[in-house]
Amino acid sequence: MSSLKQANRTQRGSLQIHEANPANKLHLTVVEDYEQMSQAAGQLVLHQLTQRPDSVLGLATGGTPVGLYRKLREEKADLSQAMTFNLDEYYALPRQHPQSFYQFMKGHVYDPLMPLGYDIPNGESAEVEQECTRYETAIRDAGGIDLQVLGVGRNGHIGFNEPETAFSSRTRLVALKRETLEDNAQFFDHVSEVPKQAITMGIGTILEARTIVLLASGPAKAEALYQLMYGDISPSVPVTALRLHPTVHVIVDKAAAALLK
Ligand code: F6R
Questions:
Q1: Burial class of residue 2 (count of CB atoms within 10 Å of its CB; 0-12, 13-18, 19+)
Q2: Which CATH number fits domain 24-260: 3.40.50.10950, 3.40.50.1360, 3.30.230.10, 3.30.420.40?
Q3: Active site residue 157
Q4: CA distance 119 to 107
Q5: Ligand 1 in contact with 249 (CB < 6 A)?
Q6: Domain boundaries of the chain, sorted by first residue
Q7: Is 154 in the pocket of ligand 1 (CB under 6 A)?
Q8: Among 37, 118, 123, 159, which is most exposed with the fewest C-beta within 10 angstroms?
Q9: pLDDT tens, per residue, the chain with 261 residues
Q10: What residue owns the CA closest to ligand 1's atom 1?
Q11: Residue pair 84/192 in contact by the 8 Å Cβ criterion
Q12: Catalytic annotation on 155?
C-alpha cells in the first residue's frame, strides 16, 4: 500500500477515500508579490464567472483576499447571478461588530458587488448545532460550491479548522488556537478581545468544492506552504488535506514560496 493510501486509511477514519492528488499535481503559481497574487486570483474568479455566471463561490476573510476583492470591484465583476458562502464567522461576536466577518464581507463584497445571494454562518445563533446544519443544507441546496477561495493560517489551518481537525469534519463550532488568536489580534484593540470560538465549514465541507484556489502571501505562510507541497498528508497540518482534492490552484508570492524548491 502506498504511504499516501496508508495515511488516508489511518487518518480519515471511515470517510470515503478520495484518490490522492500527488503534491506535484497541485497547480502551483508563484508570483512576485501580493499585488500579482491578487491579480492572478482575480482572473481565476472572473473566468469562473464568465464560464458560469450563476456560480456558487466560497469566500474567505482576512488579509489575504482583500486584494482579490479589490480586483473584482475594479473589474466590475458581475455577481448578479452568483451566490456566495463564507468559510467562517466568529462565535458570539455581534454581526454589527466592525470586526465580524459579516461586516468584512459587507464592505468588500456584499454592498459593492451585490451577489444574487450570500450566506455566512450566524455567529449569534443560540442554536449552534441547528445553525451548522442549516449552513450545510444551504450549501447543498445551492448545488454545492463551484469555486472555493482559501487563505491559510500560519499553523496550516484552512477555514478555522485548526491542527488535528479530522479531514471528514463538517460545519461546526470550534475553539481557536493561541497562534490564531495572536494573528487576529491585529484587527482588535487587544488579543483578549478576539473571540475564542468560531463557526467554520469543516475540511470535509471544503473538499467538496469543485475547484479550490489557495492564496498565500508573505514569509509567515512559508512553512505552511512547504508542508502543503512536501509534508505528510496529515490532520496536524490541515492544509495538506488539499492534496486529496483533484483541482486545486495554489497562487503564492515569492515570500510565501521561499521554502519551496
Ligand atoms: C478566513 C479564514 C482563515 C484565513 C487565515 C489566513 O475566513 O478562514 O483560514 O484565511 O487565517 O488569514 P490572513 O489572510 O489574515 O493571513
A1: exposed
A2: 3.40.50.1360
A3: yes
A4: 15
A5: no
A6: 24-260
A7: no
A8: 118
A9: 333 333 333 333 333 334 455 555 799 999 999 999 999 999 999 999 999 999 999 999 999 999 999 999 999 999 999 999 999 999 999 999 999 999 999 999 999 999 999 999 999 999 999 999 999 999 999 999 999 999 999 999 999 999 999 999 999 999 999 999 999 999 999 999 999 999 999 999 999 999 999 999 999 999 999 999 999 999 999 999 999 999 999 999 999 999 998
A10: 61
A11: no
A12: yes
